[in-house]
Amino acid sequence: MNIPRIVKIKQIIxxxxxxxxxxxxxxxxxxxxxxxxxxxxxxxxxxxxISYIDPVKNEIGISIRNxxxxxxxxxxxxxxxxxxxxxxxxxxxxIAGSKILVVxxxxxxxxxxxxxxxxxxxxxxxxxxxxxxxxxxxxFNDRIEKSDAKLLTCTDDGTSGFxxxxxDLAEKxxxxxxxxxxxxxxxxxxxxxxxxxxxxxxxxxxFSMERYMKCGMGLCGQCCVDNVxxxxxxxxxxxxTDELRMINEFGxxxxxxxxxxxxxx
Amino acid sequence: MNIPRIVKIKQIIxxxxxxxxxxxxxxxxxxxxxxxxxxxxxxxxxxxxISYIDPVKNEIGISIRNxxxxxxxxxxxxxxxxxxxxxxxxxxxxIAGSKILVVxxxxxxxxxxxxxxxxxxxxxxxxxxxxxxxxxxxxFNDRIEKSDAKLLTCTDDGTSGFxxxxxDLAEKxxxxxxxxxxxxxxxxxxxxxxxxxxxxxxxxxxFSMERYMKCGMGLCGQCCVDNVxxxxxxxxxxxxTDELRMINEFGxxxxxxxxxxxxxx
Amino acid sequence: MTILEIExxxxxxxxxxxxxxxxxxxxxxxxxxxxxxxxxxxxTKSFGIEPNKGYSNPTTVEVMGGIINAVGLxxxxxxxxxxxxxxxxxxxxxxxxxxxxxxxEFSDIVSKIENxxxxxxxxxxxxxxxxxxxxxxxxxxxxxADIVRTVKKNVKIPVIVKLTPNVxxxxxxxxxxxxxxxxxxxxxxxxGPGMKIDIxxxxxxxxxxxxxxxxxAIKPIAIxxxxxxxxxxDIPIIGVGGIRDYKDVLEFLxxxxxxxxxxxxxxxxxMDIFTNINNGLRRFMDKKGYGSVDEIVGIAH
Amino acid sequence: MTILEIExxxxxxxxxxxxxxxxxxxxxxxxxxxxxxxxxxxxTKSFGIEPNKGYSNPTTVEVMGGIINAVGLxxxxxxxxxxxxxxxxxxxxxxxxxxxxxxxEFSDIVSKIENxxxxxxxxxxxxxxxxxxxxxxxxxxxxxADIVRTVKKNVKIPVIVKLTPNVxxxxxxxxxxxxxxxxxxxxxxxxGPGMKIDIxxxxxxxxxxxxxxxxxAIKPIAIxxxxxxxxxxDIPIIGVGGIRDYKDVLEFLxxxxxxxxxxxxxxxxxMDIFTNINNGLRRFMDKKGYGSVDEIVGIAH
Lengths: 265, 265, 301, 301
Ligand SMILES: Cc1cc2nc3c(=O)[nH]c(=O)nc-3n(C[C@H](O)[C@H](O)[C@H](O)COP(=O)(O)OP(=O)(O)OC[C@H]3O[C@@H](n4cnc5c(N)ncnc54)[C@H](O)[C@@H]3O)c2cc1C
Ligand SMILES: Cc1cc2nc3c(=O)[nH]c(=O)nc-3n(C[C@H](O)[C@H](O)[C@H](O)COP(=O)(O)OP(=O)(O)OC[C@H]3O[C@@H](n4cnc5c(N)ncnc54)[C@H](O)[C@@H]3O)c2cc1C
Ligand SMILES: Cc1cc2nc3c(=O)[nH]c(=O)nc-3n(C[C@H](O)[C@H](O)[C@H](O)COP(=O)(O)O)c2cc1C
Ligand SMILES: Cc1cc2nc3c(=O)[nH]c(=O)nc-3n(C[C@H](O)[C@H](O)[C@H](O)COP(=O)(O)O)c2cc1C
Ligand code: FES
Ligand code: FES
Fold this sequence. Notes:
The complex is a heterotetramer, with two copies of chain A (265 residues) and two copies of chain C (301 residues). Chain A has 265 residues and is α/β, with parallel strands linked by helices. In chain A, 22% of the residues lie in helices and 32% in strands. Chain C is of the alpha/beta class and 301 residues long. Chain C has a single domain, classed as TIM Barrel (Alpha-Beta Barrel). Chain C contains ten helices and 14 strands. In chain C, strand 13, helix 8 and strand 14 form a beta-alpha-beta unit. Chain C is globular and about 50 Å long. At the A-D interface, loops of A face helix 1 and strand 5 of D. The site of one flavin mononucleotide has 28 residues of chain D, from strand 6. The site of one FE2/S2 (inorganic) cluster has 12 residues of chain B, from loops.
């Protein structure tokens, strides 16, 4: 049922100066990495990817970058405070292949880390390119190190790992190693670049998209994309490259809360 | 769901000059003898006991005495005509014991024959007292003869079997034979008499009551009985003697469609 | 310990649940049964001056989230009903629901039974009543006010007015009723009316073709009515519409209802619904540390 | 062979189902998608003169038998919407749903997009619109008639008026709309409004606190509205409210709707709902020997 369930914040993890992870008790059923929750702070309600799924402890987590009014309000909450969660929503990542390259940029690491934890836990060889502006904005390094996934960091300012864009590192890596599949979430410009790269390498890939969301349940049409009309909240947010080819606004523009188009820089 | 299901009359059996049985295809699940259906002829809707249950052929039947406007309209229908049925409703007869006396008077034989068919089919020894005004108003003789139940007929005018009231025959039989239980459906005066008789013999007994019904689903309160307030359509129509003792209007009075009380003659 | 007791217009109730009008309640027996089953108070089936057979069957049919009904206010008339009221066991407060075509009929009925009940509920809101009764009145603020005023002049016990949601502006009617002297409001009667048509035959299933929609399907509307009216009147509100469990009751209390009535869900849950709901309320209030129902009323505002 | 085609105000539709206003439909892409998915026609999200962000979230929440929503008519404004309408693939007829605060706004908008669509639907019935739009108009027969009259004077394509059930008498408004020149009526917009309150916190979940109730829960009311209005007007009726399968469509056709719109149930069934319903209709009509949809319309009367 599409009704917020009130949960207490069980734990808050400071992931970086701008990102916090919030952990909740949650009756985990078939939550899948790549799916998202609608998060209600009794004032507004916005979509957040599931960044953590523990089916044994029955916990889930979301990781939020403080970039505006809503995310700031949530950053100001303490353990024990309440939020309303409904979900999971959307179509998550398909897990397939035995060697997967995952590429996450900025807060796009949220669904990526959930995917990587699950896939590497299944014995799949997972290489993670984690990209951020600077070293202390790299997310989830601890969690990755605790897992069997291999971490390749990448910062714009070279303070950690590869110096430059994640997409450059990805291109380099793809030319050196054979992967069965690529998984990506990050700023749309980055995803668009990676899309072109995987097309070149002819590797199957999945990308997680973001669009303005209101209902999250496939009714309001706010998140529909051109030209196919699909709803990011139901048919997405994860798409295969084949599907992305039909979403021709990908990398080009996005609509705001009134539906007015804005170019993606 | 309490919504009429439209069914075709598959077969009509003339049981007597005043009674016809109507057979329908029906997805038999847990229909129990003693339960009733709400029967809609697209003009009115009234309760009718299930008189026939075949879980193999997936058929049920109801048997209707032509006594007024509604029952006449239904008697005028032909095979292939449609009716709306909803149900089954109410609490049916409990089957218990290995030797049961069942007593049916007039159209009260409808749930009785369904019970007797089921109980004797289970290997229980069933003796039926079937009472009617005259021999050609005796109902279901063929069906009883085909079953393992033993038939004792009884007519007011002596044209078949015992001459006199069913209750007199029942008293005689009960004094001669030991039964585990008595089951009864018939005019309320008859049931009241039998109630007194089984009380005397201290034999467990169940009686099927009738009261004016509107909703059949426990809301309108039209069928509630004094002093307990129970709904005949939900808590009944079948009651044990213990329960009947708490229904102190039993044998005394009944309410009509506006709730006005009328004495039972 | 959590206290479920409330007081409504000076009437003490051991808990905030009532049997709604017209669900059983035509006899003392069924009213007493509801009381024994845990209801904090009982409302009778609505009755009028004369015996009324109501509509022919089908009078009820199930729909998604409830039923539609056109029972048509069947009742044995005030003189017979009086005999029932005399047999009430008085274990819980009883409210007589009455209907009529005008203020004289209402006053006439009420004066005959005033001494037998704890309060009167004026049904000016039945969406399928005949002869100018029911919502034909409750959709007109002036007619409603006239009746309330006349009845108030003639009786000493509290007078509750039950309103229909089938109006453009329920707040207006509520204010008229309050100004006319109503002691409390019951919100809401069944909605619509609605219709269900049989697919095979194309025939509207209810004999009266249309009937009031009740049950969980109407709860959001009922909650909004209570919420809006709570902000505009000072008299207590009795919430009704679609309550099936204690959570639904909480919604009504939060919205501003002092207590609630339960109808259609008795079809799903049986008479145990009162006890189940009261247990649920007690558990919830204990957990949350609420001492009394009054603390909860209106907190959504 | 059964024919699902119908004609509505001279517009040919391959089947009697439409995408309802405000369910997706803000972009050419999603409208084209609905067309490709089997809808016989599509209605746009309602748009007005200026871009409108609508209400903050939560704008939707599920309730028994549907949802309540207060999206608040978010839309990019007529000038942006025009660019979308230009990209319609024209595979099925398109109807532009528009809203405004008065007849001048309505006319202004409509004149800008008249040449891009097959018909106009005037949304004078949104139960949660701001600034005097929506049901603030549709609850007043005269305001409604003024707008219809003015718009009709200014456009050549058919003008459909979408009415709110949240009035004391929908038949009256329907007749005013017809008299003012409406070519067809759409019945009904969402109901109420309704409210849902969170149990844990006591906070109304929708940011706007109240929102329109839609989905299967409102079907009985919608059917009754269509049935009643059918008996009182001569223009075609488009039925909407709670349709989830072909049986629901049949009920609307029986009640007098010429065709139907589908909204909330897309949440349950996805875009396949149109094809599924049309297949169901075809099977049913084949079995029953109906040759065309028109044979079914109004048979409940
Ligand atoms: C499927 C999906 C998953 C997401 N997962 C995460 C996540 O795991 N962590 C995280 O920090 N953020 C995530 N986001 C983005 C997040 O929803 C917004 O960034 C956040 O709501 C911004 O809120 P704000 O009020 O703080 O900032 P604002 O200043 O209001 O917005 C900043 C930008 O965020 C975007 N945004 C704002 N509101 C919404 C909305 N309702 N729906 C979509 N985008 C919006 C817009 O592009 C806007 O320009 C996700 C978005 C989507 C669609
Ligand atoms: C649980 C139950 C099971 C029944 N089973 C059968 C059965 O198997 N066969 C059968 O022929 N009859 C049965 N009846 C009785 C049957 O419902 C009525 O006799 C019949 O509806 C009378 O309809 P009428 O219009 O032809 O006669 P009317 O002249 O209208 O009524 C004759 C009498 O039937 C009774 N009656 C009428 N309407 C109703 C009603 N809605 N509910 C209850 N009683 C009513 C009243 O006592 C009335 O005086 C049953 C009744 C009940 C309550
Ligand atoms: C079968 C039935 C009969 C009703 N009869 C009456 C009545 O006589 N008087 C009245 O005021 N309301 C009557 N109502 C309305 C209920 O009291 C209540 O207001 C409505 O059903 C909404 O509550 P619910 O959803 O809990 O049923 C009746 C409702 C039903 C379902
Ligand atoms: C999320 C949502 C948005 C809606 N937006 C509009 C709208 O913009 N204009 C309009 O006329 N109706 C709007 N409606 C009402 C629907 O078009 C429809 O009349 C109503 O939902 C009943 O149909 P349904 O039960 O099939 O959803 C909206 C409904 C929903 C659920
Ligand atoms: S957010 Fe409403 S359809 Fe996707
Ligand atoms: S017939 Fe309505 S309660 Fe029994």
